[in-house]
Structures are given as structure tokens and as C-alpha cells.
Amino acid sequence: MSKRKTAHVADEPPAVVAEREPRPPVEAIRAAAFAQFAERGYPVVTVRDIMKACGLTQGALYNHFKSKDELLHDIIASTQGELERLCQQAVAGAGGDPRAELAAFVRVYVMRHCRLRIEALVANREIGWLDTARVADIRRSRRAIRDIVVAILRKGVERAMFDPPRIEGQHDLKAIAMALLDQCTHVSMWYGPGGDLAEEQMAKLYTDMALRVVGATPQAV
Predict the structure, then answer these.
(1) Which end of the chain offers a freer environment for a tag, N or C, measured as fewer CB atoms within 10 Å?
(2) Does 4 fall in a domain?
(3) Are residues 69 and 131 in contact, defined by beta-carbon separation less than 8 angstroms?
(4) Which residues pair with 167 in a beta bridge?
(5) Are residues 49 and 106 in the same domain?
(6) pTM, whole model, 2 decimals?
(7) What is the domain count for the chain?
């Protein structure tokens, strides 16, 4: 009796693994610029360095930015604008209580500076290389963020919920707002993942400190 031949099934093609969609060129350029400027400083870094870091040609940069100056302005202005938007959104969703508004503001501000340390470093250290015209809109956004804090402080004082420090018997809410912002901004200079406190814990710590500075108790939020 003849042996029955075993049917051979054609090998199936290997499953195609979906690859992550590559980052758009403009985003790759921005990310490389942030990293290069943070590590080496704006004056030293060349366009060639940035494009080599992101694997693109120099011509690709000039499709999106006219110069290295324009690129620096773009990355600082974009991260600053997003910070302003997040702060506005956090305060708007806090329900109108100045204690909750200040807590929401500080939380989102500190969380962003913990997570985007490189962006914060570049924005605060390298802005001095931009000309006056390019700096104007960035400074406008920074003043807008300061004014959000001033408005929260004023509301808290008017409602007798805050009793911040006084100078010769008077509140200087703008100075207090700037002190709070400086404190929160500089977390980006030293904080790193893997330390004793996670981002959420760091944000809670800074929130409690801010509320104590203005004479409100953290437990009230």
C-alpha cells in the first residue's frame, strides 16, 4: 500500500509588526534642538549639529525655519505658550475658590517643570540670545502667567482667605507672585526622576508650601 503523501501548507507570511509612526520632521528638529542647546549651549551648537542629531539634512531645517535664531525662538515660544494655556486651564477648572485655584496652578506648573526639565532649562537660560522683537511675545506670556497668580492672590486677600507677608504693612502681590513662580520654576534645575519624591509628590509639596506662604492652610483645599 502506498504511503499517503502529507499535504504541505504553504508557509504563511510573517505577521507585520506595526511600527510607531516616525516623528514629523519639524518635531524631530525641535526635540534635537532642545537637547543640543541644553547640553552644549546655544552659541556653540550649529545647524549641522542639530540636523545630524535628528538624522535629517540641513535643507530640511530651512524648510521649516529660516535660521537657528528662528528655531530657538520657536521652541521657547511654543513651550511657553503651552505652559500659559495649561495654567489658564487649571485655574479655570478649580471652581473659583482662590485656595483651590492656587493649588491647581502650582500643581500643573511644577509637574510640567519636573517632566520637561530640558525645555525649561533652554527656555530660561538661552532666551538672552534672542533679539528684542523675538523676546517680546515670550515676555508677554510670562507676564500673563504672573498676572494669573496675582489675580488669585488678590481674590484670596479680598475674601480673607489669604494673609501673605507684608512690607511696611502693605501686600506686594506682584513680588509674592514672582517669588512663588521663581520657586516653582527652579525645580527644573535639580529635580530628576528616580529620587526620593515622585512628580506628584513634588507637586503636592510645592502646593503646600505656596499655600503656607500666602497664609492659607493646605488642608483647606
Answers:
(1) N
(2) no
(3) yes
(4) 170
(5) no
(6) 0.83
(7) 2
Do 117 and 212 lie in one domain? The reply is yes
Q: Are residues 60 and 82 in the same domain?
A: no
pLDDT digits (tens, 9 = 90+) for 78-127: 999 999 999 999 999 999 999 999 999 999 999 999 999 999 999 999 99
Q: Please report the DSSP string for the chain in residue order.
A: -PPPPPPPPPPPPPPPPPPPPPPPHHHHHHHHHHHHHHHH-TTT--HHHHHHHHT--HHHHHTT-SSHHHHHHHHHHHHHHHHHHHHHHHHHTTTT-HHHHHHHHHHHHHHHHHHTHHHHHHHHHSGGGS-HHHHHHHHHHHHHHHHHHHHHHHHHHHTTS-----BTTB--HHHHHHHHHHHHHGGGGT--TTSSS-HHHHHHHHHHHHHHHTT--GGG-
In terms of residue numbers, what domain contains 172? Answer: 69-220
Q: What is the pLDDT of residues 21-69, one digit of tens each?
A: 455 788 999 999 999 999 999 999 999 999 999 888 878 888 889 999 9
